[in-house]
């Protein structure tokens, strides 16, 4: 949410509030059922009242979140347009080609640097937005792709900073990679 500085954090906080309120409602419901099972109808009725109040508060918070999102749209925020991003599996081939071109092993930083020219032609608006620690999304996706490349048998499953390509990975670097992860 780039329209309002700090907007993303506000949206996350409102989502977190909703999750916490749902958890509180669940806990109230559980407590109410325990009280009913023990025959403590007076306290159970009081818990039902609390549950209603929490539920009403949750509805008010939902209205607040809706208002926040409409405020964002008025600020010229085009997050829905900039959220288009490249699928994870589309990173596989440039990563494998970068590894292959560097002799079959490299660090994440070397792979990012070598793969960047190829990857830049694939990138969509959402891929260049800044993510955690100021890194662009496409760099985070390269990191995320590692687990899937290991699962597919394209790189070795070794701990440490060096990524190593397998013979299957070398073949995939030269040909098509079938999409496995959606």
Q: Which helices and strands occur, and which strands form pairs?
A:
Layout: H1 7-37, H2 41-74, H3 79-82, H4 92-101, E1 105-107, H5 108-120, H6 137-152, E2 162-164, H7 167-174
Antiparallel strand pairs: 1-2
Helix pairs in contact: 1-2, 4-5, 4-7
Sheet of most strands: 2 strands, antiparallel
CATH architecture of the largest domain: Orthogonal Bundle
Strand content: under 5%
How many individual domains? Answer: 2
Q: Got a strand count?
A: 2
Count of helical stretches: 7
Reading the helices and strands in chain order gives HHHHEHHEH
Distance between the termini: 25 Å
CATH names the topology of the largest domain as Arc Repressor Mutant, subunit A
What CATH first level of the largest domain would be assigned?
Mainly Alpha
Radius of gyration: 24 Å
Q: Given the helix and strand composition, which structural class is it?
A: mainly alpha
**Order of strands across the widest beta sheet?**
1-2
Assign an overall shape. elongated
């Amino acid at each position: 949410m780039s329209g309002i500085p700090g907007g993303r954090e506000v949206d996350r906080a409102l989502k977190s509030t909703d999750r916490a309120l749902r958890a509180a409602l669940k806990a109230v419901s559980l407590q109410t059922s325990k009280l009913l099972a023990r025959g403590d109808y007076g306290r159970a009725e009081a818990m039902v009242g609390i549950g209603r109040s929490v539920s009403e508060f949750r509805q008010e918070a939902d209205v607040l979140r809706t208002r926040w999102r409409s405020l964002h749209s008025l600020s010229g925020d085009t997050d829905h347009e900039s959220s288009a991003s490249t699928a994870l599996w589309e990173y596989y081939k440039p990563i494998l080609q970068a590894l292959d071109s560097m002799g079959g092993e490299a660090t994440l930083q070397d792979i990012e640097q070598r793969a960047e020219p190829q990857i830049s032609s694939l990138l969509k608006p959402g891929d260049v937005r800044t993510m955690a620690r100021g890194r662009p999304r496409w760099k985070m996706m390269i990191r995320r792709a590692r687990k899937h490349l290991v699962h597919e048998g394209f790189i070795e499953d070794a701990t440490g900073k060096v990524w190593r390509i397998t013979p299957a990975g070398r073949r995939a670097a030269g040909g098509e990679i079938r999409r496995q992860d959606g």
